Amino acid sequence: MTEVTHIRERRERMRAPRVPRHRSPDPLASFATSFTALGELAYEGAQVSASVMDLETGRSLLGIDERIVLPTASIGKILLLIEVSARLSARDVSGYGILDKTSRDAVGDAGIWQHLQAPSLPIADLASLVGATSDNLATNVLLREVGLQAVRDRTESLGLMRTALLDLVRESRGPDDAPQLSVGSTAELGWLFAALTRGEIVDNLTSSRVLGWLSLNADLSMVASAFGLDPLSHRGVDHGMLLVNKTGTDAGVRSEAGVVRGPRSAVSYAVSVQFRDDGIAARLRVLEAMRTVGFDVLEYVH
């Protein structure tokens, strides 16, 4: 009963009229609510990391343990998409090259290819499935094509030291498997999205292609839930807002990174939370805190 009351109180605070704070002389004051919400999670025992940066000035607007390494679940698939896009730019592979799904690639959960009859799809289509639905089967097929080591080498060449795709997607992880699909620091993830936006990841064509795939992402359940966008159709500008993001979800893990541009300014952001997922109340507290970050981002850019 106490947990239910706590959730109701939080919901009422979220629904209450919000006084715009982005006009404060101190832009950092705009993220005081985010700091408080994430701090409450940390006080309850969660590991929290967050980074928000102004794209125009490079100024840090929010930083909470942004250099620690936390599990990021499917966010690491961005690194795979970068490697695939770089090969397309170098014409090492063709976007129309056909790849087959096999029994060893099979995995459930996220994605729709497992539910489709098509036994084969072009490389570019597989990348679109990863961007749109974080498709696990498409991820494994692409990884089989390019190789995990190539993704790791590309990651290191970008200067990322705390962010990595560790493994392919598995139904379960044994003692000989990597404990997580991917890990990352929010500082590096925020930088990565900013660099993609500036066309600095490999080259402009490679960066633009990756952003195009990620712009299909249908998961707006975390930070981006505050932006009021259509989860299935937000590739264009909507009320002055343009969003590209990637999320990661696993047991006790919620993570999101992205870039959002509004009428006033633009930011790159990343938020990761590792928590004890022992009940719906705990999970909702994490999602509400991430949504609070989204509200503060919205007020800053809009």
Walk me through this protein's architecture.
Helix 1 runs parallel beside helix 9 (280-301) and helix 4 packs across helix 5 (136-146). The protein is globular. It has 9 helices and 10 strands. It is α+β, with helices and mostly antiparallel strands. Strand 9 (253-261) and strand 10 form a beta hairpin. 38% of the residues lie in helices and 18% in strands. The strands form 3 sheets. It has a 5-stranded antiparallel sheet with strand order 2-1-10-9-8. Strands 3-7-6 form a 3-stranded antiparallel sheet. A two-stranded antiparallel sheet has the order 4-5. The chain has one domain (2-301): Beta-lactamase (3-Layer(aba) Sandwich), CATH 3.40.710.10. The protein has helices spanning 2-15, 32-43, 77-89, 123-133, 136-146, 148-157, 186-197, 204-214, 280-301; strands at 47-54, 60-64, 70-71, 98-100, 120-122, 164-165, 182-184, 242-250, 253-261, 266-274. The two termini are 38 Å apart.
Helix content: 25-40%
**Could you tell me the mean pLDDT?**
90
Task: Give the DSSP E fraction (strand runs of 2 or more residues).
Answer: 15-25%
Q: What is the total tally of β strands?
A: 10
Write out the strand line-up for the largest beta sheet, numbering strands in chain order.
2-1-10-9-8
Spell out the CATH superfamily. Answer: DD-peptidase/beta-lactamase superfamily
Number of domains: 1
Q: Could you name the CATH class?
A: Alpha Beta
Q: What is the structural class?
A: alpha+beta
For the largest beta-sheet, the strand count, sense and barrel status come to: 5 strands, antiparallel
Shape verdict: globular
Tally the helices: what do you get?
A: 9
